[in-house]
Amino acid sequence: MPHPHLPSTQAAVTAVRALAEEFRLEITVTDDIGADQTSRRTSAAAFSVLDEDGSLPHEAFIELGGSPHISVRLYPEDDAMITVDGVEFADVPRDAVPGFVRAVHTGLAHVKGRFFPPGQWLIVPVPGGETYKELIPTVTLTPWLNSRFR
Question: Whole-model pTM?
Fold first, then answer.
């Protein structure tokens, strides 16, 4: 099942707002609009607001309250970085962001540990066949991560 296409940063923000309302989570959104405001613009000249193609880039930072703490940075290049209780998932496609947040809040996300190679990983299976897996950078787990251990 493919993800619904989110053509813009604002469409992704709207989808995450709907999830926050569904799961009754507090949400904070910060928008950065213009090439002079966004964090990783390479196609725009210094101090210019528009890209060379005349587009106005839009970046957003979303924080969701509750447990676990989730933050989402949506980039104009159609990708996002999602942080779940300190574990960073970089380069998540913008279309997968709502499914990712839903997977975390419906209990699909889990922690798996191994002796070799040593470490613990947060695994988020997103409906649609994609699974995101990141190494947990700390030795001690947060209470939410510890409750998801398999």
Answer: 0.84
